[in-house]
Target: Methyltransferase family protein
Amino acid sequence: MPNSVSKSAAPVADYDSFAAAYSASNESNLFNAYYARPEMIRLAGDVAGLEILDAGCGSGPLMEALRSKDAVVSGFDLSPAMVELARQRLGEDADVRVADLGAPLPYPDDAFDLVVASLSLHYVKDWAAALAELRRVLKPGGRLIGSIIHPTVYAIVYPEADYFALTQYSEDYDFGEGTVWMTYWHRPLQDVINTFIDAGFGIKTVTEPPPAANTPAELLPTADGRSFICFLFFELEAR
Model:
């Protein structure tokens, strides 16, 4: 959870400065290791032989998991330090590049069967352009599986804010020996759904899952391991 909040957004986080600490945290924390990543893998299903792009791959844990299921994986991240960590994890010959989800992507049309975007879209202001690029690199009928901060979290944490406005906000977190500001874009659920549709995607599945069954008891937010409001997951189909 964040330590504090700024509505006049702090500078966007420079992931290069804390990439190693962030990556280490993601290996074992509740939100990444036992919540977001297991659900993304579950939604991906049988990926053997599929060409997959990880949009915002970070240090590559999801790429590694999908590759272990016999997928052919490529990935990109805005942070050169994260890309270097991904190459260390996956091997120097891995197709991992520095690229911006909010800009044109360095991949040809119709290149991938599946795009995964785990906790990366909420860093992007212009979803229309980003989703158009993801749709472009997907084969017709290909899937986009994504996760974002659940829009209702914003309404709960900031009850005085305008839930229906596109809003940039920042929260500070402790990683390693320092505190960093993470800056996100909130948009209401109706805008999330309609932007997907306008970009040429059909919605196949929406999930609000419980933590993974193997989550250590000390990490569970509820004693019975039931679902809690955190992230929202989408399985979309390119039309």
Observations:
- The beta strands are 4-6, 51-55, 72-77, 95-98, 112-118, 138-149, 167-175, 178-186, 201-207, 231-238.
- The two ends are 37 Å apart (CA to CA).
